[in-house]
């Protein structure tokens, strides 16, 4: 524990930004990364020297079975950041450092946060996936293909309505929205088809951000091209005046939409700052969507790594719950252990310390924030998971504060605890964490996964199971719109689907400003989105928006190109 | 001439669709294509085995000077199609077949026409660029990057207005529109920012198709990353209440937008059905934009080919005029010869033969359509260009009709004439055309390029020069909106820029239904778009729309994925 003192000023010591570290790291050709992990080069499609698409044929379900799956989640996020991706990458590096074969599976970044408030999503410091500029911007075009497929459906639907109006075809309700991979608040609610008749039929519409698209979820769940096409055909677009559902397949364009996604469904292979293989594929947000990378990417990580490290977005109330109840249910996964990331700054914010003071030593403030960790630990135990708390070290963290967190974890909560210094030291800084993870898997692995609900419960019961057990909600109400959707779900025979609740990440409740314990709060379901193609029901809790906005000074003003190189991307 | 008879039923003979021919053609690795033409592999960035981005460093201005530039244009298009890309690719194949070193430079296809009325844009039969499925769909992501950059500017602008409203910042006029690479008539005119205050400020907006984006034009004109960034900074977004212009650079985001385009500005290298190198880069339409591939792609073709074959979109009134007056002006190009593509079916349509009857032999009908060819030939001669007419052979064309076209070209117009059979026979079918092109370049090359107007004319004079000399307009009027823009152009000091008139491709006039000669028609300029970043002025003539719509039965319903392969893409 002593040596931690020497890293109290890690940022001051390195004086290097994430992108500077990334650009000064020598990468190995992606073909070598593949060869090293035993992946046949024939199954690779290179996108430049350092990125490749990998054929789903590379998945080996037999090999997967003997390998270990590690889920990385976190306490509730705050504006201080938490570094979940940094820990996920760091843990893979640490596992390699102690002689294990690890592969990491992550989500692809969205341009919205990248140009908005949060910045990129490739980890940080010496625990990043590379080439971070490419991964953060466009990458292999998957998000663009998803955007294009989503909007092509919207266009084909509008055109179908326009061209068939004379035949009496009409939809009473159009459920399909457009998407764009930006934070565009002005597009949340729009009127389309203004101007002369030839501009289509006037209607209300709107855009969500691409990570919220049902096509994104479909891409994450699809197990083959045929499965992808079937799911696209099953997308529900609206209802006619006799309340008959209208699906993509009714327009006979599921094949054309699948054609737009033929490259996008292949997982992307990149490398970490230390050459570890990383599958980065699919990128739904965990608040407004299901929050984890594609099933195929996780399967590839499990095929080629003795340890597959993957993450679920935001806090464990969102990402981890959806990982267990949706992704594991669909793919048959069950993590051997769940890692929960904590930071002192986030604990202090949950303990009521003002943002301006979270960098100051404050043991009491840290302890006041334990309620948040405790709740997440209890929640994860609901699923029968063994837990390792990964303490993500920041500059300025004091030994006394760290000791208080260790004591609480080991003595009060009886969960394993380790400090992660991968940001500063790469794999060498995550050996302790890696050892704790291996030890936990060997000595007290997770029980068989307990889902929160069975398929045969109805949607209200499923919402209730998540809201009461995980969020701590007291009462639950449904808007008239939501009630109508519940009825439709029943009529369409979709009650068996899992629920993916859209909710703010900042609180267990639906109020993003409600810090502190919120047990017994009232949860209102404002709307319910039916993702019949993806195979899930998305209840919208509270005022959560599926299209974010930009902050006063967006990250975009920091990004630049100097001498042909990108700078200021974080 | 005799042997042509045997190809009267070429489609019936082959029984193969474009995509079937494409998929059954064995491609060589793109690294071999590059090596073969003398391009250092270090300058390549592979996107899979058969596509590569090429560094602009590969351009050699010195070598370009001793090589020949061939422009391929056409008579006015009709719904019968014309095959300009097929002839462009075919000519390159033909040049190779007679022992010349040819490289072709083309535009990238847009998803709008690909899923709409027209289908893909990779040529046809045995004269295609490959892999056509990838090139037609997403390709290397250039269009997606352009869409993203364009819309990121829109978002950043809306956010700037929203965040600075309290400081009194306000724009009286917002000129920037969003884009999407689809035919979405419903998005032409929309109201954004509806709902609660947090959804932004209510405003009128709309989407153009991506090929009409100023970012597309900038990508086509940029000579370096720095030049790209400077041009993006110079994009005019609107005017405040004191009529001061507001540019992208006023938001300090030109660097971030450039970062989004760093891969997109590198030209793409692919191959033809016979392994000829093809640079496919940039894709503005020629009716609503300037209609030719990027300057950098043409420079690469000119560096590595003794003959660089490039095309300009739609009829010569649009594409060729813009190629000479805009692209050549900006890049210093001057074609050695211009090839004009004709087909019997198109000539018959221009001759008043009903669409249903254009496949029937009809020498008189063909002759009645000569007025269209004659006008284009006269127009091209305005620029001092030598001309070869390329007769693009279709199934069912009769020797008698072909002879009538040959006679008219050689005896009446005194231009070279050759039949192109590349669709059916590949390079072997374009040898005659290739020989005519080489012969014309050697014996009577074009005069130095005469532009239609000098930089120092004002915008009205430039519009007039094009409208009277090329379109044959009699009178010209300007809407109030256009007049105001003329004044602004003057005030902004942008009078020196060339004009890129947006006009229907179906008629010399602004009426898409006005077949036949339209000399003396009235041309109305409805609006004028200022592309101060790209460096051109875009007058909107008549009712031309910068966002197309889909037809009753779009191509999308024919496209499918069967056993993992795309079918039905044309």
TrEMBL record, chains A, B:
<keyword id="KW-0436">Ligase</keyword>
<dbReference type="InterPro" id="IPR000559">
    <property type="entry name" value="Formate_THF_ligase"/>
</dbReference>
<dbReference type="Pfam" id="PF01268">
    <property type="entry name" value="FTHFS"/>
</dbReference>
<feature type="binding site">
    <location>
        <begin position="78"/>
        <end position="85"/>
    </location>
    <ligand>
        <name>ATP</name>
    </ligand>
</feature>
<keyword id="KW-0554">One-carbon metabolism</keyword>
<dbReference type="InterPro" id="IPR020628">
    <property type="entry name" value="Formate_THF_ligase_CS"/>
</dbReference>
<protein>
    <recommendedName>
        <fullName>Formate--tetrahydrofolate ligase</fullName>
        <ecNumber>6.3.4.3</ecNumber>
    </recommendedName>
</protein>
<dbReference type="GO" id="GO:0004329">
    <property type="term" value="F:formate-tetrahydrofolate ligase activity"/>
</dbReference>
<dbReference type="InterPro" id="IPR027417">
    <property type="entry name" value="P-loop_NTPase"/>
</dbReference>
<keyword id="KW-0067">ATP-binding</keyword>
<comment type="similarity">
    <text>Belongs to the formate--tetrahydrofolate ligase family.</text>
</comment>
<keyword id="KW-0547">Nucleotide-binding</keyword>
<comment type="pathway">
    <text>One-carbon metabolism; tetrahydrofolate interconversion.</text>
</comment>
<dbReference type="GO" id="GO:0035999">
    <property type="term" value="P:tetrahydrofolate interconversion"/>
</dbReference>
<dbReference type="GO" id="GO:0005524">
    <property type="term" value="F:ATP binding"/>
</dbReference>
